[in-house]
Every structure is written in structure tokens, then in C-alpha cells.
């Protein structure tokens, strides 16, 4: 994996191979533990992180990138939407063609993405299972 795009809420960013958390000497999981990670476990961890800090992307972007990297490497997920409503965390996730994320990134052209653009481009086309 050289560089892959990932959509986290309204932010598209590139995950570089060098960001693979397994390459970090402080990565807390052994290879067997990593191999046993499931999509459900990773999404639960992400929801717990959002519950603790709804604005984690701004407060701890490295943590978000690690979780996104794990979602991509373990489950092939390249887009996730999480929301804290004050009572609980809702989430959606999926896999879309890389080209869709490239186009979404270009559409933003330095401006902030809107819920409407992301909903139309990404979420309306995904089947939720």
C-alpha cells in the first residue's frame, strides 16, 4: 500500500504506507492479535473514541489516522461517518472506489466539504448491510 485515500466524516486524507500502525515500535498488538481484529471491534473502538472526544479529528488526528489505517488494512473500509448526538454515537462505513474519493477531494478544491456533497457522492450509493 503506497498511498490510499480515506474519507472520515467530511475530510478526505491520504494514508501513507509509512503510517501503518504496525510499523510503530509502540504498537500494542502482537501479530496474532492484529490478525484477529474484526470490523465490528474496530468500529466499536472508533465509536468509543468519539464518545470520549467528539472532535477527535482536531484534537488527536494521529489517533484517527491509526484507526482509519486499521479499518483499511483489516477490513478494506475506506470511508466512515461517525456522529455524537449527545446521547450516543452513530456510525456508517463502507468501501467505495478510490476514484470516488479522488473526485470528492478535487470537488472540495481546498474548500470544506459539505454533508450534502458527501451524502450525494458517497453515502447515497452505498448499501448498508
Description of the molecule:
The protein is an alpha+beta fold and 129 residues long. It has one domain. Helix content is 43%, strand content 19%. The chain is built from six helices and four strands; from the N terminus they run E-E-H-H-H-H-E-E-H-H. It has helices spanning 31-35, 39-52, 56-59, 61-75, 98-108, 115-121, and strands at 3-8, 11-16, 79-84, 89-94. The protein has a four-stranded mixed sheet, with helices on both faces. Strand 1 and strand 2 form a beta hairpin. Helix 2 (39-52) packs antiparallel against helix 4 (61-75). The two termini are 27 Å apart. 18% of the residues are buried. The mean pLDDT is 86.
The geometry reads as globular
Q: Quick check: average pLDDT?
A: 86
| Secondary-structure-derived class | alpha+beta
- Reading side by side through the largest sheet, how are the strands ordered? 2-1-3-4
DSSP summary, beta strand count: 4
> What is the CA-atom radius of gyration, in angstroms?
14 Å
Strand residues, percent? 15-25%
Number of domains: 1
- Assembly classification: single chain
